[in-house]
Design goal:
- The chain has 25 helices and 26 strands.
- It is of the alpha/beta class.
- The chain has 4 domains: 275 residues, TIM Barrel, CATH 3.20.20; 222 residues, 3-Layer(aba) Sandwich (Rossmann fold), CATH 3.40.50.1700; 113 residues, Immunoglobulins (Immunoglobulin-like), CATH 2.60.40; 67 residues, no CATH class.
- The strands form 7 sheets. It has a 6-stranded mixed β-sheet, sandwiched between helices. The protein has a 5-stranded parallel β-sheet with strand order 1-2-3-5-8.
- Helix 4 packs antiparallel against helix 12, helix 15 runs parallel beside helix 16 and helix 21 crosses helix 25.
- The two termini are 41 Å apart.
- The N terminus is likely disordered.
- The structure holds beta-D-glucopyranose.
- Beta-D-glucopyranose binds next to loops.
Length: 750
């Protein structure tokens, strides 16, 4: 048994008295939302969507698509918004509120958070995911898990792994090199498993490098359990299992919902195709889950008003002020004539389609909230079905012409983005853009408020807007939250968790999305989002981390202290230099300026959201760890730190770095093992190998002597593996190479 597998043995064996048939029955559900119970030994638990509120279906066996109705629950801002708050404390509180509603609705495990990386803005499910960045995703995801589990309700982190598109999601193979997997697509899962201990992980539908996630032993057993120490339950995405026995053997413990009989498992054990201990372990893990959730605090209800207010606070903290020229925001209804334009101000889009769709307890519309604040002019401007409507457009322009400011609500229509399919464009509907243009011609000041789950392009119409507030899909209290921000009741504090590109074609995955012929090749590798744009210096509409507010912040006094081997404490001061209270999101990047680059130019490794009164200042502290400067070496099968220089950068976005300190690391002390195919350069640079070579190979000077005479030739020679020098007549016969290797291995260089 490998060490990985023995670590995976750590599940408590709590099913000793059960028959094989009973244990097998625990490895699949008893319906769409329940696990199987066995006598009075193992109770059933109820699972429910997730991620941003509870979808507790009311009738029948239910479904995984959000078709059937469900009981009302608070629709908190989906992850696209909550992530943009960059506020783990807020995410924790939202998680706890979701858990309380789960408890009241009889749900034991919440199917969320969704933490897949936004590889392309086209992914139809981006509204359920946090970011293009794994650090931010990991921290926000861990906060939600911690919040949910603070009440003893289970969180089920999904979709493990590399489920970054909806196109062909049930079959496609995501073909990704291991370094990219480790650094980008698995990193957030790893962080959450290690830091927050989720009770469950949901395996995704897709294949990874040809093997279904649900049947992927490397993913589910070696990495998840063996390396990260996951001690919870692996559950399939709904219908993701193709080979029940293979999935169990790979490390998937629970198939949801059941698709075949459990007899298949029993037969496989009896036929010697499956070890009974595998079934025992899986059943034990299910039993562990039931015990964990049985210890949960139970609630009969929740305060609908209090949770609605929390949803409003979360939506307020999530909207991103992209642009605010001439300080057009905040608005002042007492001093300005203001027109509200856009059907979506009256009929807001606040959540996405599919399994996450919630029946909200209440719904605030921006128009209700703005009219309650004294704004009297409204014009629908366009129809939500996208059909052109000239009279509506004309009325909007006329209404705007009579006002000082027009606030135009734009966004993606309901059918534009959903679980189950991807977008093909990032443009707003043309009819909406036309209304904006007509309004901009008629009114001196224009504010655009956006509602969308996936990023939309601003390139075509940005010049027509003095201010742009990106509200995302803000959940059920989004309407009042947007009004709070527009009116300056509070200052915007969201920041972009994904780059807004100028054009779809600028997106690094563009040539490789969504793939064809059953495969999607992650050809852009680790260069996802800002990692690509900032390495190449591509122009973007708005960079990762960007977001304005109604004040300005000053950064100063960067101090870096070494606290251990490859560990540093970083601190700086941040001051609110404007006239309004607001929050700043201070971002820490680790930067490697290499040319040509061998890694992204810089990567987010820390952030802190600080709320400051006008004139107030605070110190912000970060820790940089060895892992923060490491890269995954597939050759070594581990993280690696090379000796050399790097920098820590502190700033307000990936393109607005305010402070920077240069540091060096001695590396991780690793010395490569030399082999026949190691190059002459690698031998010469090696602490032992160089010595061995110089002392044992007299004719080496014929080559090293070229270093001065002909540097180019010497460089060429350095690139040649030792085993290939046989024809060069410097004595490097295969036998000599073997001797050199032996000497280098034992360190006997002299
Ligand atoms: C989705 C999951 C969801 C499950 C249950 C699947 O189609 O991918 O995210 O939790 O259905 O509704």
């Amino acid at each position: 048994m490998s060490p990985d597998e023995s670590a995976a043995e750590s599940a408590p064996a709590t099913v000793d008295g059960l028959t094989l048939e009973e244990k097998a029955s625990l490895t699949s559900g008893a319906g769409t939302w329940r696990t199987t119970a066995v006598r009075d030994v193992v109770p059933a638990v109820r699972l429910g969507d997730g991620p941003h509120g509870i979808r507790r279906q009311t009738k029948g066996s239910g479904d995984a698509l959000g078709l059937d109705d469900s009981v009302p629950a608070t629709c908190f801002p989906p992850a696209v918004a909550l992530g943009s708050s960059w506020d783990p404390g807020l995410a924790r509180r939202v998680g706890a509120a979701i858990a309380r509603e789960a408890s009241a609705l009889g749900v034991d495990v919440v199917l969320g958070p969704g933490i897949n990386i936004k590889r392309s803005p086209l992914c139809g499910r981006n509204f359920e995911y946090f970011s293009e960045d794994p650090h931010l995703t990991g921290v926000m995801g861990a906060a939600v898990v911690t919040g949910i589990q603070s009440l003893g309700i289970g969180a089920c982190v999904k979709h493990f792994a590399v489920n970054n598109q909806e196109t062909d999601r049930m079959r496609v193979s995501a073909d990704v090199d291991e370094r990219t997997l480790r650094e980008i697509y698995l990193a957030a899962f790893e962080h959450i498993v290690r830091e927050a201990g989720p009770y469950a992980v949901m395996s995704s539908y897709n294949k990874i490098n040809g093997v279904y996630a649900s049947e992927n032993h490397w993913l589910l057993t070696e990495v998840l359990r063996g390396e990260w120490g996951f001690d919870g339950l692996v559950v399939s995405d709904w219908g993701a299992v193709n080979d029940r026995v293979g999935a169990l053997a790979a490390g998937l413990e629970l198939e949801m919902p059941p698709t075949r009989t459990d007899q298949e498992i029993v037969d496989a054990v009896r036929a010697g195709r499956l070890d009974e201990s595998t079934v025992t372990r899986a059943a034990g893990r299910l039993h562990t889950l039931t015990r964990r959730v049985a210890a949960a605090e139970r609630f009969d209800d929740w305060d609908v008003g209090v949770h609605h207010e929390l949803a409003r606070e979360a939506a307020r903290g999530s909207a991103v002020l992209l642009k605010n020229e001439r300080a057009v925001l905040p608005l002042d209804p007492a001093a300005q004539r203001i027109a509200v334009v856009g059907e979506s101000a009256r009929s807001p889009r606040y959540q996405g389609h599919g399994s996450s769709q919630i029946v909200p307890t209440r719904l605030d519309s921006p128009w209700d909230a703005l009219s309650a604040a004294g704004i009297a002019t409204f014009a629908a401007g366009y129809r939500l079905d996208g059909a052109p409507d000239e009279p509506l457009k004309r009325q909007a322009a006329e209404a705007a012409a009579a006002c000082d400011v027009a606030v135009v609500f734009l966004g993606l229509p309901d059918e534009a983005e959903s679980e189950g399919f991807d977008r093909t464009s990032i443009d707003l509907p043309g009819v909406q853009v036309e209304v904006l243009r007509a309004v901009a011609r008629a009114c001196p000041r224009v504010v655009v408020v956006l509602s969308n789950g996936g990023v939309v392009s601003v390139a075509d119409w940005e010049a027509d807007a003095d201010a742009i507030l990106e509200a995302w899909l803000p959940g059920q209290a989004g309407g009042s939250a947007i009004a709070d921000l527009l009116l300056g009741v509070c200052s915007p504090s969201g920041r972009l968790t994904e780059t807004i590109p100028n054009r779809l074609a600028d997106v690094p995955s563009h040539l490789h999305f969504p793939g064809a012929d059953g495969h999607v090749v992650y050809g852009e590798g680790r260069y996802v989002g800002y990692r690509y744009h900032d390495t190449l210096g591509t122009d973007v509409a708005y960079p990762f981390g960007h977001g304005l507010t109604y004040t300005r912040f000053e950064y100063s006094d960067l101090a870096v202290r070494e606290t251990g081997t490859n560990e540093w404490a970083v601190e700086c001061a941040v001051a609110n230099a404007g006239e309004r209270a607001a929050a700043e999101v201070v971002q820490l990047y680790v930067a490697f300026d290499e040319e040509p680059p061998s890694r992204p130019r810089h990567e987010l490794r820390g952030f802190a959201k600080v709320e400051l009164e006008p004139g107030a200042a605070t110190r912000v502290a970060f820790a940089v760890s060895a892992r923060d400067i490491a890269w995954w070496s597939a050759a070594r099968g581990g993280w690696r730190i090379d000796p050399g220089g790097f920098a820590v950068e502190v700033g307000a976005s990936s393109r607005d770095i305010r402070l920077r300190a240069e540091l060096t690391t001695a590396g991780d002390g690793h010395v490569d093992v030399l082999g026949r195919m190691s190059t002459l350069g690698e031998w010469l640079d090696h602490p032992v190998g160089g010595r061995v070579l110089r002392t044992r190979l007299p004719k080496l000077s014929a080559v090293t002597g070229m270093a001065e005479r002909s540097p180019a030739l010497f460089e060429l020679a350095r690139s040649i593996p030792l085993a290939k020098f046989g024809t060069f007549d410097i004595g490097l016969t295969p036998e000599v190479v073997d001797d050199l290797m032996a000497a280098a291995a034992t360190g006997q260089g002299s």
